[in-house]
Amino acid sequence: MEELLERLLEECRPCTGAGRVADYIPELAKEDPDALGVYVIGSEGKHSWAGDCRQSFTLQSVVKPVLLLQALLDNGAEAVQNRVGVEATGKPFDAINAGEQTLDSRHINPMVNMGAIVMCTLIHGGSYEERFQRLLELTGRLTGNPEIGIDEAVYRSEKSHGSKNRSLAYLLKSCGLLEDDVEEVLDCYFRACSIQVDCQGLAHMGAVLANRGRLPDSGQRVFPAALARYVNAILMTCGMYDGSGEFAVRVGVPAKSGVAGGIMAYNYARFGSLTDFGANYNLTVNDMTKRGMNVGRLAPAFFTYFLQPPCMTGVFPFLQAAPFDTTYMGQTIKEVTFGGIFACLPILWVLAFSKRILAMRARQRSTRTIMGVIMVLIGSGIIVALADAELAGILQRYYADFSFMFLAAAVLPCFVVNEQLFAARTGYDLMLKVLLVLACASVTYSLLLCFVPETGWYSNVYPWAYQGLLDSVLFWK
Q: Is the pLDDT of residue 271 over 50?
């Protein structure tokens, strides 16, 4: 990979002469226009780099996705969108995006300067110093650098030569989109733009966004997956300003540029079925990322998907993620699962008695149709499960691809039992009670699984309601 990156850098190096440094900020005018570096965090977790990737520079506009994330975390998507729109402006980053007579939130988005200035006001904090420190802490987590700081010289240069941004801020204030003191808001914005990073920090930030809010090394969640989708969409349509459309057509990935020369881009596409077999996974060591067959993965997949016992805990929602490691093409892939379907859905235990149950029906009506349907459903479920493991890995989200087939197969013997046993016969009530218990246990497991934070099914979609539920259930803590 390093040889490829070095070759690409040499091919692209002549292009550095086609641009110029951002001399409207005096400190940025001092930057070396020939500096060129690249850092890649691969889908399997490998780090590769070339050129001047260790040279530090300021984030500038690449901080705007972080501003957006912090605002989303503090206020939620609906509140943020009420203050700042999502439509691409088709104009440069510092353009005055006004309509015929006035300016409203529909005329700006979080990736242009006016939108980013408003984002600063949406960050929670008792003072703008506190707001910036919270933003800096989030930036440190996203870039993988807890010691991150700002370039004081660039900050002072931006603040003393920020006339255009001041005019934008005062326009926002005159139109009622900015309520706080303009200089305090701009000071926070100038500091944010002056946060110092290198290529590795940008690659790490891209990997977190590609991984839907999880750190690429540990898998720890930094922000909900729903917010990652929001930011990814904005970066795809607005991240490169008036060149976003052409960039989307030519390159096709979310990206963000800054006038200090940094560009962050990442591939967050996924594959998991025959219909989208050719795509790549997001940049994370937590997902199977390369297509191809691996017979050694069949046995672990069978155990994980069908037989693995669930991990239980005494705290709501009582289910705990079970870490699962598997080796694929020399890489150890880490995932979390929550137990196999036969261990967690007791209603499927009925399938073990299918032959005896169907024998009761055969005494009255000699037919093997139902048994044939059950065998086809079970066989198809096993094939789909193992095919998923081969094509895309052993992943919790693929349980839905095959589990419904086994549930459908289990329903058929239940109907036969209800049809063949009569109320007058001994054991009828007992059999119905057993089936009811098995069904209730299966439904309970499925409902609790929705509340496990790692799945994101409820915690990411309705974070406010999820927190309220936890506070209600865990009232004794």
A: no
